Amino acid sequence: MPLHMTKIAYSADSPASLRQWLESHAETGAALMTTRYLPKRHEEMVGGSLYWIFEHALIGRSPILGFDQREDGRWHIRLEPVLVPVQTKPKRAHQGWRYLTEEDAPRDLEEGESAGDAMPPRLARELAKLGLV
User: Which residue ranges are recorded for the region named Disordered (predicted)?
Assistant: First the structure.
């Protein structure tokens, strides 16, 4: 069972812009995220996914292909250049990345189920504050 990670989609204006950024790397075969440190559990994460946080909610995931060290000592996280929509789940913002276990990861939206069927991130956050989700 692979381990996952969460990260804020800090440069994305919307889930659509995040999808566009990821898909723009399809020709190279991988979208690259940069991190200062190699996760200690990186071997468990290959085959897992990076779950994206947008407006305090998990909105999608990108499968993790691997990790490569750059010349300056930082690390690239190689991601499959797709955004798989998931059931919206509240998630507090944080710096850097955090581990996410399979049990805590939201489910993928099923074939024919649209992102519009999922709860909007802001509503999910407000309901979570009230303890209703």
Answer: 95-120
